[in-house]
Design brief:
This protein is an alpha+beta fold and 560 residues long. It has 10 helices and 23 strands. The protein has 4 domains: 46-153; 158-214 and 506-559, TATA-Binding Protein (2-Layer Sandwich); 243-347 and 475-484, no CATH class; 352-463, no CATH class. The chain is 29% helix and 28% strand. A hairpin with a 5-residue loop joins β16 and β17. The two termini are 29 Å apart.
Length: 560
């Protein structure tokens, strides 16, 4: 524990000061008298060294510890490495049951991995918490050191204590053989030629301070600022408005809302071109290799009725682009990339007719889209209300209708028909647009069950006249939707951090102090934060120009 003592020069130093802020005399003798001084932060007092810390100071001390910062970084790196063992859930498209996928694909270890939440490592609370703690440590470490250091460097005294000079990394003593004033002028000129800024004691001119490259001392702290900006930008990616990495699958002619936005995208047409055999190497001839796949996309913005569950949203076209690999559609920070495509036939819409089996009359046809269908339809004098929709129809373990997924793979519609000659509650019918044998059987069975329950009389059925009333899609295009408003700040943080690293690595803060006592006794002390050989060479060269020949190695105070 440091004591608050008053230096012999009369300056009152705060608790924790190692070297007197005025004359530089050591206040704590924890090293041998002939050992170089500890000049880190110029011996100034820091908040983390308070003798009676409060609970706030204890938190400050925790985050100001470099050892704690290193451990936080190590733990974060280990956590980040664990997140790379198996793919993260965010890297998959339409992953409806992550637990089942990881178990089926990676076995027991995959199930454990997903159960522990490691498949969502980078958005987990503990990983984000570690990043926040690292950022807090950077801020506290910097403030704990940079403010006292700035105070010490901005108020440096020219005349230093003799002990301070003798215990520097570079130290030298001799007796002058020429006039002290003349020698001082010559030595100043040599230091200025080496781009030192020189201050001389205004009282008697027998003490000097020369300094250069002080700015390099701020390099580590500028690096910290860059890292803080970088971390804040990374954390900002957790904000939905700042970052999104989602996928939208579209059939030709289909329009879908981009998740968590007011934008809609439409796949006007998808085109794929394949390499010919002449364009392929011998080992690949006879195979289909995509040369180009392109989605002609139109981007819309919802301007009205966006959240109305009944009304259709009002859309305004804002952009159009032929999306290819590495040629995305861009609009105000939103980018749509061509991610993948699937060659498959998918039903987009049908135009069925309502048939009265008692009279043989047909009504319609009416337009029935497979996705986002309207809730009511008109077929002659009858009104059809959509009661339920199963995009991927199936039966559960109790033979109850259910949907296997959200994808429109095998749609089934439940309509309530009302109109003349029908009870006020209407009649309920199941309709399968895809004309497979299994679907026809299911449709008959379910409608028969409705009849037994008394919800219909079996009077009506549905029929599609010909293929002109059926719209198919041959290709399904998957677009990768990205919003990354944090990326510019990530680059800014990286650039600031690099500037700090360059400042700290390629320049050295060098200082030279000297004093002349009794008219001819010269004492020199010099310090640099790195490259002590360089400052010894500069001091020796400057002394040599003034007539004092000395070997640079002889100036090394650490060899004793």
């Amino acid at each position: 524990m440091f004591q608050n003592t008053k230096c012999e020069c009369g300056h009152q130093n705060p608790t924790g000061t190692v070297l007197c802020e005025a004359c530089g005399k050591p206040l704590v003798e924890d090293l041998p008298l002939d050992s170089p001084l500890e000049m880190r932060y110029d011996g100034v007092a820091r908040r983390s060294q308070k003798s009676n810390p409060s609970w706030i100071d204890r938190i400050w001390n925790f985050f100001s510890s470099v050892k704690i910062a290193v451990w936080l970084i190590v733990i974060t790196l280990i956590g980040a490495a664990l997140g790379t063992i198996y793919p993260q859930e965010s890297s998959f498209v339409n992953l409806y049951d992550p637990a089942q996928y990881y178990k089926d694909t990676y076995g027991t270890w995959g199930a454990i991995y997903q159960f522990l939440g490691l498949s969502r490592t980078y958005e987990s609370w503990w990983f984000i918490g570690l990043l926040v703690m690292i950022g807090t440590s950077l801020v506290v470490c910097s403030l704990d050191r940079v403010l006292p250091l700035y105070k010490a460097l901005s108020k440096q005294q020219v005349r230093k204590h003799m002990t301070f000079l003798k215990r520097q990394q570079t130290a030298f003593e001799t007796t002058l053989e020429i006039d002290a004033g003349e020698w001082m002028q010559r030595f100043q000129r040599e230091l200025k030629r080496k781009r030192y800024r020189v201050w001389v004691d205004p009282n008697d001119g027998t003490a000097l301070l020369a300094e250069k490259n002080r700015f390099s001392r701020w390099g580590p702290y500028i690096n910290h600022i860059g890292l803080i900006v970088f971390l804040l930008a990374v954390l900002g990616r957790a904000v939905p408005a700042w970052h999104m990495d989602a996928y939208v699958s579209l059939d030709e002619g289909q329009i879908k809302q981009i998740p968590n936005t007011q934008y809609y995208v439409k796949n006007e047409k998808f085109t794929v071109e394949y390499y010919t055999d002449d364009e392929l190497p011998e080992r690949l001839k006879g195979t289909l290799r995509a040369k180009l796949y392109e989605t002609k996309a139109t981007l819309y913005e919802c301007t009205a009725d966006c959240d109305d569950p009944v009304k259709e949203p009002v859309l305004t076209q804002v952009a159009q682009h032929d999306i290819q690999v590495n040629s995305p559609l861009s609009y105000e920070g939103l980018k749509l990339y061509q991610y993948n495509y699937d060659e498959r036939i998918r039903l987009l819409s049908v135009k069925p007719k309502l048939i009265d089996t008692q009279t043989g009359e047909t009504y319609g046809p009416f337009e029935l889209p497979m996705t986002n269908p309207p809730l009511t339809y008109e077929a002659g004098p009858y009104t059809l209300k959509l009661s339920n929709l199963f995009p991927d129809f199936g039966l559960d373990e109790y033979n109850r209708p259910m949907t296997k997924s959200r994808e429109t793979i095998n749609p089934a519609f439940v309509f309530v028909v009302t109109g003349p000659g029908i009870a006020a509650d209407g009649e309920m019918y199941m309709y399968f647009p895809l004309p497979s044998a299994d679907n026809k059987t299911l449709q008959s069975q379910l409608n028969e069950s409705f009849r037994k329950l008394g919800t219909n009389t079996g009077r009506f059925s549905f029929e599609v006249g010909d293929m002109q009333n059926v719209e198919f899609s041959l290709y399904n295009s998957t677009l990768n939707v990205r919003v990354d408003r944090a990326m510019p700040f990530i680059w800014v943080g990286a650039a600031i951090s690099m500037i700090g690293l360059v400042m700290g690595f390629y320049w050295q803060h060098r200082r030279i102090w000297l004093r002349i006592d009794d008219g001819d006794k010269l004492t020199i002390g010099a310090h640099t934060n790195k490259n002590t050989y360089g400052i010894r060479a500069e001091v020796a060269a400057a002394l040599g120009k003034t007539g004092i020949k000395v070997d640079p190695k002889a100036l090394d105070n650490r060899r004793n």
